[in-house]
Amino acid sequence: MLIKKLITIGLTYGICTTVSAGDLQAPEVNMADYSSDLTGLERSIPKLKKAFIDTAPADRKDGIPVGEIDTIKESLEKLAQEIADNQHTPYDSLLIAQNNKLVFESYYSLGRVNFPHPQASASKAYTALAIGRAIQLGYLTMEDLDKPVTSLLKGLDRTKLVKGADLVTLSHAMSMQSGIRIDEKKRDALLENPEHLTGKKLAQIYLSHSKPITSESQTYLYQGSDPMIAMLVLDAVVPGSASDFIKEELLEKMEIDNYHWEEAVSGVPQAGSRAMMTSRSMVKWGTLVLNKGRWNGDQLIPEAFIAKATGKVAVPTDDEFDYTNFSYGYFFWRTPLKVGNKKYIAKFGWGGGGQYVMAIEDLDLVIAVTGHRDDDKTLGLIEQRILPAFALSI
């Protein structure tokens, strides 16, 4: 499986060159002591003594074309130095690509060029793109998005399914609108038994122990069941495993070989979180979205799927965060960012702690951000400091 095969890739470096040399290699890490979350990152990686800031990124022969910026160089360097001086949220990296070229690269604190950074819920966006790849290859169709997941997950015990289980479509699952509602204590008890979680048994639990599912209950709710149902569907329809499919049909195509994606007890990659990517790999994911599913001239994901995934499918709600200007697609967020009187639509994967994989089509920009603290200021920083620089330069 993907996780077992790649458990040490990129995580056992013993080289540590100076920051001024721009190599930023991670120190040796024992994977047995590491967990793919932000707490594990802080335990395992010493903070950089000096930030690395580059307005003319090096060609590292990793499949990312590079360029440099001139007219807005000083404004980005100023922002980067403020980050280095702890004037903003604790960031680990900030990378920017324009016109399909990496033009700004910076690392701080726990950031390293060769160390896969925990993605938290940004992992969901990669799960959606894997579904898109399955559609491109014919293992699913765009029409399947609106079919019941029960028709795609063969072998379920239909006698135990809750009333309304057949209402749950793949589109519902990827937009957090499945309508699955399980009492928290009951859910935790069910998930404690690993024997119940292997293969499609996890989907069986979600679809058998929910309260009755109705069209009224199928409203947005950010929860763990929906991403895993999407991943279990992927595992059910592709040849081999979802792990190998993601590796061979997406990651290898984009020359991403330095990553870690934790596996769930069910035998598939964790869909809601637990992926780890380097910051440069995050730029690749963003570039794939910016280019409407094309990578180096090949259509890896249908353009129609990218439009749907980054479009307006659900209206997100939360008791603690104001989502007034946000919409939700297929595990992707969408919001307008304003520069003067003009609005630019940002489409992004978003993970707790400050992980962003963002595409802004009107400026031909991809922005990758990693961090290690809860954050609600990054979008404002992008809107106020990064977008104006690029908007005024064109």
Give a written overview of the molecule.
The chain has 394 residues and is of the alpha+beta class. The protein folds into 2 domains: 15-121 and 274-393, Beta-lactamase; 140-237, no CATH class. It has 13 helices and 13 strands. Strand 11 and strand 12 (355-360) form a beta hairpin. Helix 4 runs parallel beside helix 9. The longest helix has 16 residues, at 378-393. Mean pLDDT is 89; it is low at 1-23.
Task: Itemize the secondary structure elements and their pairings.
Elements: H1 2-5, H2 38-44, E1 52-54, H3 73-84, E2 91-98, E3 101-107, E4 117-118, H4 123-136, H5 149-152, H6 170-174, H7 184-191, H8 201-209, H9 225-237, H10 242-251, E5 259-261, E6 275-277, H11 279-290, E7 294-295, E8 298-299, H12 303-309, E9 327-328, E10 333-339, E11 342-351, E12 355-360, E13 365-371, H13 378-393
Antiparallel strand pairs: 1-3, 2-3, 2-13, 4-6, 5-6, 7-8, 9-10, 10-11, 11-12, 12-13
